[in-house]
Amino acid sequence: MNRRTEEIGAPELPCQVRKLLDSGQRLALVAAHHDEGAVRVVYLFVSGPPDTRTELHVRLDPDQPSVPTLAHLSFPAGRFEREMRDLHGVVPREHPLPHRLVRHYHWPRGWYPMRPDAGAAPPFGEQEGPYPFLAVEGDGVYEIPVGPVHAGLIEPGHFRFSVVGETIIRLKARLWFVHKGIEKLFEGRDAAGGMRLAERVSGDTAVGHGLAYCLAVEEAYGVEVSEEARRARALVLELERLHNHVADLGALCNDVGHGVLNSHAQRIREQLLRLADATTGHRLLRGAVVPGGARLASVPDPALLARVAVDLGEITDLALGHATVRDRFTGTAALGAQAARDLGCLGYVARASGLSADARFGHPFTTEGRPQVPATQASGDVLARFLVRAEEAQASLELAARLAAELRPGDMTVPLPRRPAGTSGTGIAEGWRGAITTRVELTPDGTLTRVKPVDPSFFNWPALPVALADTIVPDFPLANKSFNLSYAGNDL
Amino acid sequence: MSVIGAAAVAVQVGGVVAGAPLLCGLMRQVRARLEGRAGAGVGQPWRDLRKLLRKEAVTSLGTGPAFRAAPVLLVATTAVVAALVPLASTATVVSGSSDLIVVVALLALGTVTLALAGLDSGTAFGGMGASREMTLAALVEPTILVSVFALSLPTGSTNLPAIVSGALSDPDRLVSPAGLLATAALAVAVLAETGRLPVDNPSTHLELTMVHEAMVLEYAGPDLALVELGAQMRLTVLLGLLASLFAPWGIATTASAGALAIGLAVCAGKVALLGAVLAAAEVFWAKLRLFRVPELLAGSFLLSLLAVTASYFLSGA
């Protein structure tokens, strides 16, 4: 891994960032830190292969922290800056969209929850004006507000559709209803205590977030994990991808009213969850990846995985062979390659739009844990996302069987040293939604001072309204399910 | 005559009211079993209705008479249709008034009442559902009208009992090109009218995709019970009408108690069979994209037009 850290002054930031972006790196993470006597902002740029990570550290005046905005250079940078302003009070100068992102309007003015002196959450203050929804005007335009409380088991998010007839002209997704203060909760924990929290950042991505966190902690401690443990980690990472992909392939069929395939997909998912329980002792695979290695209670039976592969193949074939289902998927909510690239999309959303972003190739932690080639499609519609995920599920089954054949159950952990070798580390893992980046900082005695996880949903949420332009309202649930973004992982 | 005839009307209305939730339960059970689920049992819709009827009546703020009157009107219009349509017997006290155009108008009245209630609720979903329902209704009502009209041509009357009796005395009519085309057209129209797949998905929780359910989202308690019962009765009556028009055997044509009992049993059996077949077919269908639904309905309207044309030319009238 090629890792580089540079201390630079705030004025030269845009110039440096432009150079890094032009050299093909992407902005993966921005985190503000409240050091003694300074506010320090870390910009992490990554690219791969070869695995390259560049950190820019900028020190700011703690009384009036402000940075020149990068929104004109990178769309995700603009969102990171708004998040940082809301949580840390670091002002991005000349930001093109300076209104609140994370903090809802009833949060008191001038209170920044990530500052060391923030204290307990104050009572909700006076509304700082109404939320600035852009009103679309014109003949026959009307608005449909949906949520934040939905029918069914869906996380909270408010969607405001501006519609003519049935065609969506504009969609505003208002999120950030589930701020839990996870980044603050990490502070002061040790590596093992942080792990328990990392696995719970987004319930369906226990391994992805846990693994990114472990990789970051291990880099800070200077620990080399055994090759066997890396393979065990790759195995559980694929098992997680698998149960989520299977559930969503079924749910996509259910959303077009073809419930029988959903019933069967849920049956397969249940088999996979029981397999997960047998493999790790937890149905959602918690506790398998630990700082320093991995633990397996048992190893999956390749014959079972082969049976699941046949079963799943039958379901996807039936879905794709069904004229109505295929018609509903084809051309719905298409996200173009250029838009996906500009927005910084990750995971299957990016791969369905023709980009080949996959951290298993770009930032591998083992040479074993990846399929032959990333699954990609060009059309960017619901069908493309369905096909990418069906292909990935099959590749995961193959990969899991290959990894399982070489693995033995047991504890494959090396103990962490008493004191970390460095003070910071970064971890990147390809969770089922896409690349998860986590950066940790520790004190010399191993206490976490700052952990910043970034879920791929943070990058992918803005792509949903873009893909929905000219889609009809009754196709929105299908399009939304095909993205299946995390609310909890997005809003820490 | 008139006692048995009056009893026939009571039996038809009572049978539809009591049987509609059971039909719905049967269809859900068939679907569940075919999907590999245990299912809630045939009696579940009745248990749901009982639960809803026990609840307090709540109406949302700002709703007016259209919203409050709709559930009762929906059930009432459907009950009148159930009385008029020859389901168990063609010899009822009201068979003289059982006109095709009256029946279609009563069904349309129920649809429009519910759409007005959806608009009256003042929510985006109510308006959206009402707009979709009206779009579909504009295509469905003419299809029902024209396809039954095709069957009325050989009889020379738009009186439904006369059409059914005519078909009984001359079953060849049913397998004539006009009869088959009309069957296909009416079957599609019934699917759309009752909000079944592939036009609407009755079991979805996704508000944005709903048609019928979107209009009634604001209802709760006893009002919701009436709306649900009304929808179930419409399904039952329309399936019953379909069965009587295209497989009229077993229906009572004389006003005798025995014939009426047989007619009721045969009608219940036919409707249950049709419902089970529909539920089984739905397992293999998916919901069409909303903008494709008019294509399907225009197709069924065309079939009904062809049925009329065929009926006109081939009967040599």
Automatic annotation (TrEMBL), chain A:
The keyword Oxidoreductase applies. Keywords: NAD, Oxidoreductase. SUPFAM superfamilies: HydB/Nqo4-like, Nqo5-like. The keyword Oxidoreductase applies. Residues 255-414 form the NADH-quinone oxidoreductase subunit D domain. Pfam families: Complex1_30kDa, Complex1_49kDa, NiFeSe_Hases. Residues 29-118 form the NADH:ubiquinone oxidoreductase 30kDa subunit domain. Gene3D superfamilies: Cytochrome-c3 Hydrogenase, chain B (1.10.645.10), NADH:ubiquinone oxidoreductase, 30kDa subunit (3.30.460.80). PANTHER family: FORMATE HYDROGENLYASE SUBUNIT 5-RELATED (PTHR43485:SF1), HYDROGENASE-4 COMPONENT G (PTHR43485). This is Formate hydrogenase. It comes from Streptomyces violascens. The gene is hycE.
Automatic annotation (TrEMBL), chain B:
It comes from the Bacteria. It is found in: Membrane. It holds the Pfam family NADHdh. Its main location: membrane. The chain crosses the membrane at residues 6-27, 72-94, 100-122, 134-154, 235-252, 258-284, 296-314. InterPro entries: ComplexI_Subunit1, NADH_UbQ_OxRdtase_su1/FPO. Coiled coil: none annotated. Keywords: Membrane, Transmembrane, Transmembrane helix. It is a multi-pass membrane protein. The keyword Membrane applies. PANTHER family: FORMATE HYDROGENLYASE SUBUNIT 4, FORMATE HYDROGENLYASE SUBUNIT 4-RELATED. This is Formate hydrogenlyase HycD. It comes from Streptomyces violascens.
